[in-house]
Please model this.
Amino acid sequence: MAQAVTAPREVHVLLADGATVSVRPVRADDLAEVAAFYGGMSPENLRLRFFTANRHSAEQYAQRVCRPASPGRRALLAEAGGEAVGLVEYERLPGTDHADLALAVADRWHHKGMGTVLLEHAASLARSDGIAAFAADALSENRDVLKVFADLGLSVSKRFEGPEVHCTVRLEADERYLSAVEARGRTADVASLQPLFRPRSVMVVGPGRKPGSVGRAILRNLLRGGFEGRLYAVHPVAPAVLDVTTYRSVADVPRAPDLAVLAVPAPAVPSVAEECGERGVRALVVVSAGLDGEHGQALVTACRRYGMRLVGPNCLGLANTEDGVRLDATFATDVPSPGTAGVAVQSGGVGIALLTGLSRLGVGVSTFVSLGDKYDVSGNDMLQWWESDGRSDLALLHLESFGNARAFSRTARRVTRRIPVLTVDAGRTAVGRRAAASHTAAAATPTMTRQALFRQAGITSTRSIAELLETAAFLHAQPLPAGRRVAVVSNAGGTGVLAADAAIEAGLGVPALSSALTVRLLAGLPDGAAATNPVDTTAAVSEDRLRDCLAELIGSGEVDALIVSLVPTAVATATGDDLVRSVVRTAERHGCPVAVVLPGQTESVRYLAGQGVAIPSYADPRSAVQALAHAADRTDWLARPEGTAADLEGLDAESASETVAHYLADHPDGGWADPATCAHLLTCYGIPQVAWAWSTSEPQAVRAANRLRRRGGGAVLKAYWPGLVHKSEEHAVRLDLTDDAQVAAAYQDLAERFRGKLTGVLVQPMARGGVELFAGVVQDAVFGPLVMFGLGGTATELFADHAARLAPLTDQDVHDLLRAPHSAPLLFGHRGSEPVDTDALSRLLARLSRLACDLPQLVEADLNPVIARPDGIDIVDVRMRLAPSRLYDPYLRRLR
Model:
């Protein structure tokens, strides 16, 4: 049985050149449009499509394709400007899991990626219909369509028969295919953003005549920033604003600008956007705030109809400091300084703070965008732009919400391999989440979910704007440390101790130095120095002695980075500036990551400039340490294998899907599944549960206990009724029943206490001892399936020692998830104990991940406890909650 899939609806997709087309199901009333589509094709295009130039064949096919759709037979139409420009259809071949495929693209839309887009959408839909492959026939001379098939990223086999080629296109969406889709999406996305960030002309609609007008401020910044293209302004009355000639309406502007910035009242935004589209504008920035749902939808509709990309509404604007562009379409007070940091924020206030901080540091920005309400352009778009712009070597994000979180995660994983991506984790508390928006599901907090995304994608997550800037300062200027070993050097012992404490708390190591190195250090330092790590040089250290000390540490191979804390003292033989110069010169010569702490400086972070190198200097040792710790985390992440999906055998996804469908047919609103349903779903995915039996009478329970009890062990009885979640709290479990009399008495007790609601009793053997763990799944509405793992048993909610990763899990994700909880040492031989079977736990997590991805109706699953021992694991208790849901393809290309 095929899984339910979200009913096809109209979506908008970017082509390779950045143009926008809509893709939707063909309807019966499309006959005239489809007939016109075929009627407009050249004879050569018709011949290649139908193997004949006979237009009668095209007319017949138009009638056939407009029949009502059914599972296994679908047709999708691509439109641009209300005109059909492409069509794809598939129909299941009787008695098979293959479908016959037909594809056509209008002549003037060839070589734009139209056919590929249609095939991607058809393939996604066909998978939901249970179709495994497309069968397509083409003329061998039709090299264009054969290349489209070959470049899809899917497995294609060809069989030649005379002038025809019979192609079979397998539809498995494996890593190769997803990477190909991703690459095509990146090309299209970057092309569509060109009018936003590299416009040749800009129009400001709504520049006020009085100071204080937002539109006037944007026009002023465009002039002040030196925008190098044509500049237009639209004002219904004023002949000029800031000496820029104005036009009474968008239609009056002599040439269609690439970019329009709208600073008009919210009710006027949709109509102005419509005018811009009609005039040929290619992109919009809407700074206006207060759009209601109707106005917002009308704005998006206009942008999609005319293929305009949109930033905003309710935003600060955007900027590109690139030579040849020099675009400052913001209403910020200061002009952004040119640099190499890409910045994208949802909050204008955060954006101004970051622009100011990056300018003060001298890092500057490559491109800046205030996303505002994020109707269209998102953080995902910006990551792809920075990856491709040839300028950005650092990315800073402030995102209060995510659209397609799984697509964002995939993009971020790729981009962070090339440049550091940093974010502020906004909305960590209930109050913060309310301002930003407002069992397993309860344990899966939004913070846990976001942190799972950030960790898996290699994004550096900070807790404040200050920490974001402090970390950016280090990553921008310093090499990454090779490891986590830090030497702390100070000329005042107390500051060194504070730095060492902060390093340990941040997960860095402050190793004791070898005796040989200690001897060498003390030989070059003043009397009274200490050289165990932290290294106390004393206040009397000279510039030369400090330099030699640092060089000795760097050359020792015993540490990976230095934190140098310096305070001015009255007894120093060198001035504070001399000591700072000594640090800078040493760092220049040896290339070791160095962070300086100068407690007296007024800025939280600044640069100590050298010849070709900048050393970040911090006012607080904790700031320096945290920045260095983030850098070490990045080193660790880059060193990790990228990870691959587990190759799982023994799966029966079809049976699992049928089981879920039958359950939901009987329970339309969903609910907690019965034990038999839970057990069957686990079995379908090769997840072994402790043996159990279902009993509805005392004799049944006694016989089952005798059959299941291990030699010398006891039995367990668990009451069950629909909706029972916490058995321990209900006192619905009886343990360690060693003979028939105890089993009978336990059954009678459960039956009496829960009379009227008890539907049966589970009988299990008493589990052997081990480490009690928890594994589970929860479906997040935004982030998709989340796999959780941690300490289990009755105290699981009390200690809340859980970690999570977004599915699908790679083998590296599974490795990390096992080690993420605080209790993880219990699994690997804590204090001489024998390690548990982590291979079995890894298999469990991998199979849970696949189960969650295949069955979106699995809203929640708790496996608790999972008892882990050296010789395997026992899954003792299982709860699963099912609810109606439809499969969503997160990697299918479409605009928001």
